[in-house]
Structure to design on (95 residues):
């Protein structure tokens, strides 16, 4: 199963680690407001995955979440978008 996690702060990182340790997904996609942060977190967690089960951890944008069986949103209220959401910023629908 593919798992998407939006937000790579403390809670997002903890959720990602828990999913890796439990073997909850074969692929985990991390999305963050700044792509470099998601890339850094994905790299850090990948360093520990040889000790566990097979999982692919990648950074991406909202398009990379398509096909995810589950998506977890871990945002602080101050970082959530306000007002109407444009069609370009909406998360893609799953299958």
């Amino acid at each position: 199963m593919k798992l998407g996690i939006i937000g790579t702060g403390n809670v997002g990182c903890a959720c990602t680690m828990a999913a890796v340790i439990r073997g909850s997904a074969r692929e985990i996609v991390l999305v963050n407001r700044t792509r470099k942060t998601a890339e850094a977190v994905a790299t850090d967690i990948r360093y520990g995955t040889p000790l566990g089960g097979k999982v692919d951890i990648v950074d991406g944008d909202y398009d990379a979440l398509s096909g995810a069986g589950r998506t977890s949103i871990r945002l602080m209220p101050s970082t959530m978008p306000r007002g109407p959401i444009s069609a370009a910023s909406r998360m893609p629908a799953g299958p």
